[in-house]
Structures are given as structure tokens and as C-alpha cells.
Amino acid sequence: MADTDKSPDSSRRSERSRRAILDASLALVGEVGYNKLTIEAIAARAGVGKQTIYRWWPSKAAVLLEASMALSGDAEDEGEWTGFPDTGDIAADLKHVLRLTVDQFNDEKYEAPARALTAAGAIDRELGEKFTRQLLEPALVLYENRLRAAQAAGQIDADIDVRIAVEMIVGPLTHRWLQRTNPLTHDFADTCVDQVLRGIAPR
């Protein structure tokens, strides 16, 4: 006989509410922008009370940051991101990842929260540091590790500063995305890789 007296699983209920809140923040920031995003609006869209949100997060920025991290996790789960490849061809591997980055920058689902956090982080130092530490830095470390493997294989100069090389590769992409003055394309990503690798090739 089924146990009809079993109480609801509060952890599952909480997880559903948490996910609804994160999804609502992502949807709303794309619709109204960061400045008009409010805890009240997130709560209404998620179908929860605003005190539920404040119990878990101190601000709308904190909600959006966690939502963005969850979005990155979803991309991995769905196979959009399967890790930094190491095929032995450093140019091909960098172009593959940079093209995926272009696709995300051009996808409103990713672009809206990323722009919101970038803008808010430029004003709110604490948020900016968290954004960098939790979202940006782990991605840059993957680039660094791949370049170090290329150094060990003799594909790039052993004396270069790997961190600066990474910033030279991804920096132009980010700059073009922020400026919106020119289209962000796969060809542009490929050119960035080719020109940087030409400069850091073995002497």
C-alpha cells in the first residue's frame, strides 16, 4: 500500500523554486535590461514571494550571477561545451573554442546576462570581482592550460607569458562584443588566433 501520509520533499520544492527564480532572472534581464530588473519582478515571474529570494540572495546582481553560472552548467550538460580540446593542433583547438564563444556572444540567451553583469560589475567592485573569479577566470585558466601544453609540445615559444597570450587571443573578441561596432564572426575569431600564434611561434 502506498504511504499516503508521506510529507512533500522540501528539498525538491526548494530546488524547483531556486531554478524558477534563476530562469526568471535570465528571461527578464533579456526583456527589460539590468537597470529595470527588480527582485519584485523576478519573484512575480518565478511565482514565489520576494522574501524567498532575499533568503537565498542579497541582491538582484547575486541572483543574476548564479543564474549565469547555472546557464554555463546547462551548456555543458547539453553538450554545447565539452571541455577544451587537445587534438595536438593548437590553432584548430583555439579556433574551435573561440568560435563557440562567438556563438554564445551572439546568442541573446547568453548575451543579455553577460552584458548586464559586465556593466554592473564595472560599477560594483565586489560584484565585478565575483564575476571575474567565478565565471571569467575558470575559462581563462583553460586557455592557459592548453597553451602550456602547446609550449611543452614545442608548438609555441617557451619564453612567452602564457597569461598575456591568452588575453591577446580573447581580448579582441570581448572588445568587439562590447563595442558593437563590427560583427562578431567566426572569421574574426580565426584571424585573432592566427595572428597571435604567428607572434608567439617558436623562434
TrEMBL record:
Keyword DNA repair: no
DNA-binding region as annotated in the record: 38-57
GO molecular function terms noted in the UniProt entry: DNA-binding transcription factor activity; transcription cis-regulatory region binding
One Pfam family matching this protein: TetR_C_11
Keywords per UniProt: DNA-binding, Transcription, Transcription regulation
Residue ranges of the TM segments: none
Domain HTH tetR-type stretches: 15-75
UniProt protein name: TetR/AcrR family transcriptional regulator
